[in-house]
Amino acid sequence: MFRGFNAVASGMIAQQRKTELLTNNMANVNTPGFKAEQAVIRSFPQMYLSSINTAHIPTKDGFNIKGMSNVGGISTGVYMQETLPLFEQGQIRETQLTTDVALIDGLLPTDAETGDVGALFFTLENDAGGEMYTKNGNFALDPNGFLTNPTGHYVLDTNGQRIELQSDEFTVSESGVIMENNAVVATLGISFAAQPGALMKQGNGLFVTEGGEGLPTAAGAAGVSYSMQQGYLEGSNVDAARTMTDMMTAYRAFEANQKILQAYDRSMEKTVNEVGRVN
């Protein structure tokens, strides 16, 4: 009975966390470059039960011997093991702002070990001077003329340097070359992750590597191609209709576990108040 309580409670907790994840996806359905998260729910190891039997040996002294017989397995519950971002390309939409740049995927190789399709990112400078990565090309110029992302982090070029501009009257070619006053200023730094699932999400559409090391540049990488489009943004890849359906499914699963928990509670109440009463 108490094992049942634990299994049902773990199911409710897992579905609650899944609902929170889906709610966050829905809240970012219009966030540029946002990557929807997926929940990975796993079962705890099964517990195998056995019963202890006493066998009587028909001998002169009447020996008894204890033996074990298998009853079967019982689930010990579930848990949310991890959340994984979905790196599929979001819809490209026009904004007509020169500081907006959409990074459009071309050919991306598949990792032979994990089966993951690689992902491309704009390269940013983090607070410690290292690198972080984003798909959000909603850039702006700070008061000093440096190109930054919405969180205020500097956008880096292919040499790992900050990009300084005179005004927002600049152009970005399909290959990421930034020109101002008919002169080349810099080339947007694009990084390639062969195993994007190994990246750590930092919030606000930002990603970092687990060890803090930098990703390799995508320019000239074998089997990698991409393009950029100025005046456009990559939207969120959240499927609103599917997310709503998944939220309803998670809610129904939570509700079903709740009813089972209430049934267990009523059974325990009857056991304590009626079956266990001493007359």
Automatic annotation (TrEMBL):
Record-linked NCBIfam families: FlgEFG_subfam
Family affiliation: Belongs to the flagella basal body rod proteins family.
Protein location: Bacterial flagellum basal body
Protein name as it appears in the record: Flagellar hook-basal body protein
Residue ranges occupied by any Flagellar basal-body/hook protein C-terminal domain in the UniProt entry: 229-273
PROSITE patterns, alphabetized: FLAGELLA_BB_ROD
Residue ranges constituting the Flagellar hook protein FlgE/F/G-like D1 domain according to the UniProt record: 118-178
Keyword tags: Bacterial flagellum, Cell projection, Cilium, Flagellum
Transmembrane segments: none
Flagellar basal body rod protein N-terminal domain residues: 8-35
